[in-house]
Amino acid sequence: MEERPITDWLPLTKKEVEKRGWDELDVILISGDAYVDHPSFGTAVIGRIMESEGLKVGIVAQPNWQDDLRDFKKLGKPKYFFGVTAGCMDSMVNHYTANRRLRSNDSYTPGGEAGFRPDYATTVYSNILKEIYPDVPVLIGGIEASLRRVTHYDYWADKLFPSVLIDSKADVLVYGMGEQPLREIIRGVKSGIPLTELTNINQVAFLQPKEAALLVVDSWETVELSSHEDCLVDKIKYAANFKIVEVESNKWQANRIIQQVGDQTLVINPPFKTMDEVEMDRSFDLPYTRLPHPKYRKRGPIPAFEMIKFSVNMHRGCFGGCSFCTISAHQGKFIASRSEKSIMKEVDQITKSPDFKGYISDLGGPSANMYKMRGKDESICARCSSPSCIHPVICSNLDTSHKPLTEIYKKVDAHPGIKKAFVGSGVRYDLLVDDFNKNNSDMNHDEYMEQLITRHVSGRLKVAPEHTSDATLRVMRKPSFKYFRKFKEKYDAISAKHGLKQPLIPYFISSHPGCEEVDMANLAAETKDLGFHLEQVQDFTPTPMTVAEVIYYTGVHPYTLQPIYTAKTKEEKQNQNKYFFWYKAEFKDWIRNRLTKLQRPDLAQRLLGFRNRNQKY
Questions:
Q1: Per UniProt, where does [4Fe-4S] cluster bind (predicted)?
Q2: Backbone φ and ψ of 427, nearest 5°
Q3: Of 233, 300, 445, 466, whose CB has the highest number of CB atoms within 10 Å?
Q4: Judging by DSSP bridges, how do beta strands 398-399 and 374-375 pair with one another?
Q5: Is 515 annotated as contributing to ligand binding?
Q6: Any binding-site annotation on 318?
Q7: Would you say 224 and 237 are in contact if contact means Cβ atoms under 8 Å apart?
Q8: Which of 450, 442, 530, 463 is nearest to 497 (CA)?
Q9: Beta strands 138-141 and 172-174, pairing class
Q10: Across the chain, what does the average pLDDT equal?
Q11: How confident is the model at residue 1 (pLDDT cuts 50, 70, 90)?
Q12: Where are the alpha helices (H) located in 117-160, listed in sequence order?
């Protein structure tokens, strides 16, 4: 294979900057991830957008924050600003399990090695830059900054933090997917306006003195949250704040949000409208090498890249609005889809990779089957403030046609360089159950399921019912488990018809707000009845800017302010988790004794059967 010139990647070293003939960089990006030049990695996307706008960009990937800080100095001082991101994950989620145990690996680091980024990476990096270069503005973004833009509960410290702008000392925060605000910011700084004065751009947040007047923008109304100090002493005010933030984040015509923090005012400008097809294509069609930077060659593969290198991301956003999930909070409720032409162009690129063997690992998105779904009458969407388009019922205005997706699958299948194209993303099964989704007028869901099951399942299909208790599912903003049963019947019938053995792999969560211990025992019994032996279980982690995090911290639902039970102690969480493994000998006596104590011998019988002198489980 002919080796690509190093200048095909954005520069990571001073030598690479000089090879391009540059003596100064316009922007330097600091990232908690290794640099992978691929559209699934945020730093690459941001860097390539800046490059497309004519800027000279360098990257400092996973700088050492514990030595003499030479990594932060190696590319010098940028002309316009530093851009800082913790990476593709919140650094605390990246570092710790739901039990607050330190993880031993990091999927965004060569060799999967842990320890190459700090806790609260956005804050640590920004503070270092402010110390070394006090006169250079710092712009923060990425999921960590985005979901910590207002007062938020931090599970790992077990306390409320103010906006990350306070602790990081950064000048401006971009929230959500950053392409649109970033292009506006670049145009502003190139025209000579300092970053700190670009306060009229959508989807940015910043701090200003408490006494300063708000900038007047004709189309913006302003809503004020309870102050950070009020939230510290009143959990109900914190819960009520969340509802405002979530509603405004999911509106087309949103309000500006302000919050008092000490002697400053946090200002969060309204988001941009969701990117259209042209904008999406523009972002994905930039000249990525689709490869990690060559400097990592001797350090081993980057697990996150290995997982997605032969995958195609077709859309962004999710209208599910699940209580525990951050996708809609960061990517938005409305779906932003790429064109078929852009998707097929990427498939072509993948087939030209020298180590490609003909298998696409995933044709998907945050939810595999939301491609091109949108409101039938978008004027209705423009007035909508609901956080979910499918809970408690599917909106009658939502076009849930799977036809465009089915056509993409067929075209990829027909590509001469493709042997198989799998769907590795989780499928939103409730969209495919006619009893739940009444919008299947031309039965295209059945055609999609036939295509999916017969052509695109790699051994097993991932779906996420998350729970079996209707009460818990309502808190989760998920449909009744009865719809999963109906989906399974349909899935099994199509599989049998074609002689296929491709098991469903359902995902469930333990210790979610609204889930009692008996609910977990019932979940174990119901899944046992369906023939599942669950091997992997996700224990609930309260991540910032989710409904479930607010319930965990405050004890009330932010929309009703009514109390909701949540397992919080280590013992409560472990008790819930054990029921998943009813088939393991070491848990059987505990389960029987525990359910007897909880006065539910019926569940013990369903899980274990009755025991007498001559009978073993």
A1: 318, 322, 325
A2: -90, 135
A3: 466
A4: antiparallel
A5: no
A6: yes
A7: no
A8: 450
A9: parallel
A10: 95
A11: very low
A12: 121-132, 142-147
- Quick check: 331 and 318 in contact, CB under 8 A? yes
Nearest to 141 by CA among 69, 42, 55, 52: 42
Task: Please tell me the total number of residues recorded for the chain in this structure.
Answer: 617
Q: pLDDT per residue over 443-493, tens digit each? A: 789 999 999 999 999 999 999 999 999 999 999 999 999 999 999 999 999
3-state secondary structure 87-105: CCCCHHHHHECCCCCECCE
* Amino acid (1-letter code) at residue 305: F
Q: Is 384 annotated as a binding residue?
A: no
Maximum pairwise Cα distance, the chain? 86
What's the whole-number mean pLDDT along residues 577-599?
A: 94
- Residue 441 pLDDT more than 90? no
pLDDT at 612: 46
Under the banding of pLDDT at 50, 70 and 90, the label for residue 439 is confident
Pairing outcome for strands 256-261 and 264-268: antiparallel
HSE value, Cβ hemisphere, 13 Å, CA-based, for 228: 23
C-alpha 517/C-alpha 521 separation (Å) is 7
Burial class of residue 512, CB neighbours in 10 A (0-12, 13-18, 19+): buried
Tokens of 175: 């929230």
**3-state secondary structure labels for all residues of 389-406:** CCCCCCCCCEECCCHHHH
- C-alpha to C-alpha distance for 254 and 266, rounded to whole angstroms: 17
Full 3-state SS string of 505-532: EEEEEECCCCCCHHHHHHHHHHHHHCCC
What integer pLDDT is reported at residue 617 of this predicted model? 37
Distance CA 502, CA 506 (A): 13
| Residue 343: closest CA among 317, 362, 366 | 362
The β-bridge partners of 463 are: 427, 506
Residue of 62, 174, 82, 162 lying closest to 126 (CA atoms): 82
Cα 297-299-302 angle, rounded to 5 deg: 80
Q: Are 361 and 304 in contact (CB under 8 A)?
A: no
d(CA 168, CA 451): 49
Sign of CA dihedral 52, 48, 31, 326: positive
Residue 602 tokens, joined: 């019926």
CB neighbour burial string for 545-570, b if at least 16 within 10 angstroms, e if fewer: bbbbbbbbbbbbbbeeeeebbbbeee
- DSSP per-residue string spanning 564-587: -----SHHHHHHHHHGGGTTSHHH
Tokens found for residue 424: 């590795």
Per the CB < 8 A criterion, the answer to whether 65 and 124 are in contact is yes
Nearest to 437 by CA among 479, 381, 473: 479
* Model-wide pTM > 0.70: yes
Is the pLDDT confidence value at 44 over 70?
A: yes
> Cis peptide before 134, with omega less than 30 degrees from 0?
no
With tokens 């036939």, the residue in question is 450
Beta bridge partners of 267: 206, 258
Is residue 280 classed exposed, middle or buried when 0-12, 13-18 and 19+ CB atoms within 10 A define those classes?
A: buried
